[in-house]
């Protein structure tokens, strides 16, 4: 189950005791506070706390620009300008603290984003639950033939069934041995900090993750992308839904200028101008390597 009975009881207690506040709140985010949003088979994300809203971004920007700009540009227009021109500091005025339950191999990808504050469940102190990520059959796929770090088409039939059986069997066997090693029934029992090394990378862990909006957008730009691994993309998609409710102006600008945008190199811009002038541009006369040319054609939808 995604939430333990104790966690669910804590959430219900917190939601039943709203507190008055003088701080600025986001109506869209208030509805998400303390609620767990399921991800994968046993994971979730839930908002523990947040600071700021769209107005906090424009407020910080106008401190930089000086007085009188509010009448010149509305909030959404200013936010779009800031996003379009890669300003970062105003977006750092918003922060969010999340409780995330995720497989260890996803956590190892996630932690590469070193711009957040993280506190993870300690397997030295506590015993990990018998919960493992097992992909659904449509996500059991072969190695990609064109991408060395990605997957290709889904496995089918007996091969898919065999792989899933191995994943389930190995996960359970490793956990059985983990329990046997730490057991103090008739033995001293191995230290938890040592026994944990026998657990597979698909076992679930949990952490608190606090990050500002600028760095959260950077995380989402990479992990909500179609090229990201499915499992971490599932978490990124869940976070996108939360952020869209929290800071709708900023999220729409992020969609337009980051998620839905493309970056062109100087060579690509030059080739595009030549094409608009009617020149027949090919990879051979573009000045680009074959891989970059393919990426350029993909941007053009060719």
How would you describe the overall organization of this protein?
By secondary structure, this protein is an alpha+beta fold. It has three domains: 5-133 and 202-259, 2-Layer Sandwich (Gyrase A, domain 2), CATH 3.30.1360; 135-201; 266-300, no CATH class. The protein contains 13 helices and seven strands. The strands form two sheets. The protein has a five-stranded antiparallel sheet. The protein is flat. The two termini are 45 Å apart. 23% of the residues are buried.
Primary descriptors:
46% helix; two-stranded antiparallel sheet; Gyrase A, domain 2; five-stranded antiparallel β-sheet; 302 residues; 13 helices; 7 strands; alpha+beta; flat; 3 domains
Secondary-structure topology with pairs:
Blueprint: H1 5-15, H2 27-30, E1 36-39, E2 43-51, H3 54-65, H4 75-84, E3 95-103, H5 104-110, E4 117-120, E5 141-143, E6 151-154, H6 157-182, H7 192-195, E7 204-212, H8 213-223, H9 230-246, H10 248-259, H11 266-276, H12 283-286, H13 290-300
Antiparallel strand pairs: 1-2, 2-3, 3-7, 4-7, 5-6
